[in-house]
What does this fold into?
Amino acid sequence: MNFLAHQFLSGNNNDLKIGNFIADSIKGTPPDSFGPGVLKGIKLHRRIDSYTDSHPIVLRSIKRLRERHGKFAGVVVDICYDHFLAKNWKQYYDDELWEYVNGCYALMLKHKEELPARIQEMLPYMIKGNWLYNYRTLDGIDRVFKGMARRTQFDSNMSSAMKDLWMDYQEYEAEFTEFFPEIRAYVQSLLDDPDFK
It folds into this structure.
């Protein structure tokens, strides 16, 4: 799951959305200065990642990419799954995708000063390139892969990830379609648990 799915899985809770958005840039124990709702969002992000990374359906997707992308195969699948969420958005959410992502951008801009420095630096590029909205197209995720290839210090083969995905595109989409209801149910069970804070 990448940025779009993490936002979606946060529901309509702004603190959860912020925490989920910044979680990858927070190493170790997050500071209490974030507040309980944002801290819960960081924890939620980590639980989503842990569940996703060990799920048999996701591991099937990763296995197909492992030979060409090594340790980056999971990252490729995360972006691929965001693509299928964006492409099939109306199956999962009533609002239009562009309305939803503009709301996400507006929320992050409103709280920009509270975000970690790395996220503050990335946010203008995300908005200018409209990453979340452009996940819906193959060209959009191809640009994401090529951008990541430029920023990766190691040979990740990210620049050719779109070609690799295209070879088994229907299988990846079927795997996403099978997996997404399961991750939604898992997240809902966490949010319904009064001990999950």
The chain is about 70% helix and 0% strand. Residues 21 and 165 are 25 Å apart (CA to CA). The chain has one domain: 3-192.
